[in-house]
Amino acid sequence: MTDTQRNHAVTAADSHRNADGRRNPAPGAPGTPNTSVTPETSGTPHTSGTLDEALERIHLAGPERDGWLSNHAPMAVEALVRRGQASAVHRWLDQYRSRLEDMPGSVEPVTSRNWHEALGDIDRVGDWTVFFERETEGRPWRGVLTEWWPRLLPGIAGGATHGVIRVGHSVRTLLDGEETAPRVRELAHALGYWAARFQPLPPLERLAGPADAAGALDRVPLIAEQDGEMLARLGRLTAFPDWPGGLPQGPEAARTALEELVTAATHRYATHGHASPIMLVHAATAPNAVLRTLPALPDSLWVPSLHAAWAASAAVTSAYGPREGVPVADLRSGPRDPQEVFERAAAHGDDHTIKFADTALDVGDATALVAAGRAAELNTPVW
Predict the structure, then answer these.
(1) Where is this region: Disordered (predicted)?
(2) How far is CA 251 from CA 110, 299, 301, 343, in A?
């Protein structure tokens, strides 16, 4: 981003577009700074303009920096607002803005006819973003999501799973609150990033799997060489346990299995997160993003969503997990009140710590709260 954009980043976007097809800022629109904004509380999420203002700032930037590092701002600010920390959002964005880069320009417009050739091409992320902005302007966002979700699921691990995680945060907001233009636009940006970073896993041997998710994660074979970026590590995957085995008996069974996976991966971070404190949060936050999206999808998509979520969680575990864990009994310290746990994460300021605490609160039990505290201990604080 330019210095001017960073200094005046709270602006709204209207339907007018520039030469690349993206929206031009509209001065005086609802995204303009408002010093009288009342912070949201956990009991009334998204009732003020704080989230919309933050999203308007974020949408001036692209989804990555330095060639591959994801822009975590939309996910972190959504979690902050939802969990009663809206008053911290703009201060948090102020410190994060140096990590933001301009949205890449257009290469060639993505259309309904040529999208296959652009899938997985990060150089086309600007084109993908414009495509989904137009799609979500022209028809209901649920229809766009339903059409593209099964197309994107096979590439769930792309971008270190940040595409699906960003979608999950966006859909949660749209389901629970007002469908404002910035929130619908955020879904467009999230889908565009996922499409541009689409990355299927290599062919994998299916190993005999245990009955429960925790046991399945325990049996995920670690890749032989745990070095390099995630894309290189994904190419070294060889086999996963076949969990949950046979097809779940209906969509509700799939939802239950997905909840079990999120819980198991969150708990596992408490004992195994030390191996890669940043990357291993995604073993929990990626399947939780899928879980958050299910209510917006036809139940016919719930079973394939479960299997994709398992693939993402297992891939992260294989690529970054340690060979030995730390006994949970050695970690029983820190706050136990959920609100206090999240306040600690917000004060810590690290984007992954914030997002993981958000997932831990979804799980809500004592071990999950311990895991959230562990993330705060392992990751470097911002403040």
Answers:
(1) 1-49
(2) 33, 6, 8, 35
Q: Judge whether 101 and 2 are in contact, CB under 8 Å.
A: no
Q: What is the DSSP letter of 242?
A: -
Residues whose CB is less than 8 angstroms from the CB of residue 221 and which lie 6 or more positions away in sequence, other chains included: 207, 238, 239, 240, 318
Which residues constitute the domain of residue 144?
3-196
**Tokens representing residue 7 in the block:** 């200094």
> Judging by DSSP bridges, how do beta strands 64-65 and 239-241 pair with one another?
unpaired
> CA-to-CA distance for 41 and 86, rounded, in angstroms?
7
* Beta-strand relationship, 12-17 and 23-26: antiparallel
Q: Are residues 153 and 181 in the same domain?
A: yes
pTM above 0.90, yes or no: no
Same domain? For 182 and 226 the reply is no
Do 179 and 208 lie in one domain? The reply is no
Cα–Cα distance measured from residue 244 to residue 212, given in angstroms and rounded to the nearest whole number: 7
Measured in degrees and rounded to the nearest 5, phi and psi for residue 65 equal: -140, 160
Looking at the structure, tell me whether residues 159 and 18 fall in a common domain: yes
* Residue range 348-368: mean pLDDT, rounded: 97
Beta carbons within 8 Å of 273's beta carbon, 6+ residues apart? 280, 281, 371, 374, 375, 378
Helix intervals (H) in the chain: 3-7, 50-58, 73-82, 89-96, 115-118, 125-138, 141-152, 162-176, 181-196, 213-218, 230-234, 251-272, 282-293, 302-320, 338-348, 351-363, 366-378
Mean pLDDT of 14-22: 37
Residues 350 and 210 both lie in one domain:
yes
The number of distinct structural domains making up the chain is 2
For 47, half-sphere exposure in the C-beta direction (CA atoms, 13 angstrom radius) is 11
* pLDDT tens per residue, range 171-184: 999 999 889 999 99
**Does the CA dihedral 186-190-193-195 come out positive or negative?**
negative
